[in-house]
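Lay summary. Proteins are chains of building blocks that fold into shapes, and those shapes determine what they do. In this project we predict the shape from the chain. Here is one chain we studied, written as its sequence of building blocks.
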Amino acid sequence: MLAGLLSLAAAPTPSPVAGDCVGGSPEQPFRCIYRAAFPSVGLVAQCRSDRDCRVGYYYGDPDRPTWLEPPADHPVLPKPDVIWHAATFAEVRFACGPGCRVSYFFEARRRRISPPRPQVLDVDLHRLLLAQAEGRSLAVRQIFSGREVARIDRDWAPGPLESALTTLHFDPDGRLTIIWLKGPERTPVTERISIPSMPR
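And here is the predicted shape, written in a compact code that computers can read:
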């Protein structure tokens, strides 16, 4: 009962947006524009295929974007999922293999773009924090600096960390709610954890 109430209190994660797309034939690679709710600002993807894209952000002219630098181990980017967590704050998420994803964060008002962040599970927009899976640990980091503010280790159920997490979200009061499966028995455990804003 309590877990259900806590889940209702958290804001749902927005879904990826479709973007304004043209092209998609062998003669014309497709291009998608993902506009912020801010004049003449947004993101753009130019793709030769679903697995070979350039993705960037623009101010003013979408034909003159600043391209994202792909992660070192993935020299080309696939077509992105763009999630507007707020009117001017986007997550640009890419699949990088089975069970693998990487996200960039774009803050339009302050003209900031984060380095790539792997395995992001949720974001706290108010404090600009993210929760991510790092091996068998759950780490909370500042989105743009990458500095760690908390690390959570538990007797997670065997397998990838994400398979042991049934619920994870930041709450409006700044705490992190997780429902996780404990040990080989996969016993459900509910926790609300206070998360600092700055490294200790």
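What the prediction tells us: The helical segments are 2-9.
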